[in-house]
Write a structure and sequence with these properties.
The protein is an alpha+beta fold and 232 residues long. The chain is 16% helix and 31% strand. The strands form 3 sheets. Strands 6-5-7-8-13-9-10-11-12 form a 9-stranded mixed β-sheet, with no helix packed on it. A two-stranded antiparallel sheet has the order 1-2.
Length: 232
């Protein structure tokens, strides 16, 4: 799902293209959305491009092509040049609570507990003053919380620095699951769990990092990964 500002910008670009045959300038976009700087427009454009709604044509000024529209958008008449966007269902990823975009009605508020290292373990920070809205479909029946990822040791599992992971509270997990592991009662890290005899291995998903192996009494499972939210 697009954020409110992304949705507004996409519709503005579409209507401008339909009327004028050329995409609006960044100044026109900034004025239309009531933003103070072009940097906000750059972020919105990047988000729309990442989600596959638009693409920027290289080596051409003011050249944006709309690839698809949200399902709730009403297309205007196409220009004589044949511009006709494909109308399909939009992206359903959620924005973080705390932005200027309210979460959809089916969102569930989860506590956001600060940053967890995906590289070097750090102490998990519980900050129950922050929350995030996530789609109810991401969650099972258990208790859940969210953590912001710091580091790049899980990038080969699709988890990047700055992502927010959704964790189901659990003190057990199957072999190969991505878990929040508490080491020596003070260091928390996001890693893949492997059991080898009487040892527990915490595996990164980045060849630049080494697997750490511990006796089972030094590691406690704090939860397992069930979802991920990425903000553009």
């Amino acid at each position: 799902m697009l954020t409110r500002k992304q949705h507004e910008l996409l519709l503005f670009i579409y209507r401008h293209l339909s009327k004028n045959g050329v995409s609006p300038s960044f100044d026109e976009m900034k004025e239309a959305l009531g933003l103070r700087s072009k940097s906000g427009i750059h972020r919105l454009i990047s988000g729309l491009q990442e989600r596959g709604f638009i693409r920027r044509l290289p080596h051409r000024a003011r050249a944006i092509e709309i690839l698809r529209m949200p399902e709730d958008a009403t297309p205007a008449k196409p220009t004589p040049s044949g511009f006709r966007p494909q109308v399909i269902e939009g992206d359903r990823r959620m924005p973080l609570t705390g932005s200027d975009d309210p979460p959809p009605s089916d969102a569930v508020e989860l506590p956001l507990y600060g940053r967890i290292a995906a590289g070097t373990p750090i102490e998990a920070l519980r900050d129950e003053s922050n929350a995030i809205g996530v789609p109810a479909g991401l969650l099972g029946r258990g208790e859940h919380y969210a953590l912001e990822v710091e580091g790049d040791s899980m990038i080969e599992a699709g988890i990047h620095d700055g992502d927010t992971v959704i964790i189901e509270r659990s003190d057990t997990a199957e072999n190969g699951a991505i878990v929040v592991a508490l080491v020596d009662e003070q260091e928390a890290t996001l890693k893949k769990l492997r059991r080898h005899g009487n040892s527990i291995a915490l595996e990164p998903a980045n060849r630049g990092y080494e697997t750490r192996i511990f006796p089972p009494e030094r590691v406690k499972i704090q939860g397992r990964l069930v979802g991920l939210v990425r903000r553009y």
